[in-house]
Amino acid sequence: MADLRDDEQYRDKLTPMQYEVTRNKATERAFTGEYWNTTEDGTYLCVCCGEELFSSDTKYDSMCGWPSFYQPLVEEQIEEEVDTTLGMVRTEVICKSCGAHLGHVFPDGPEPTGLRYCINSASLDLRKDE
Known about the structure:
Elements: H1 7-13, H2 16-24, E1 42-46, E2 52-55, E3 59-60, E4 68-69, E5 78-83, E6 90-95, E7 101-106, E8 116-119, E9 124-128
Antiparallel strand pairs: 1-2, 1-9, 3-4, 4-8, 5-6, 6-7, 7-8
């Protein structure tokens, strides 16, 4: 589903870093994001649209400097696209509801999936468990 909000609405809602990451596909520097080493229980939401994307149950320390998960909360909520920027071939991860750039997925994660969803903190909002 395409997000029909205009650019100005995103600029008003998001911090400059959140806007650059989610709308312009920037990447925050490693070990600087709010959630890279968070261990609190909860659900990670898309910062743009509030869609539930990842659970703390699947978060792990990949030592890469970004929040890492071995699977999304609901696989159908994530879209993947080939990303050939920066002279590399990677798989970009996008929020299906609003088109926000979230990060990338790599085939070097732990069991049970073997995947590492490497996600920018700036694209997430943690809803902590009560």
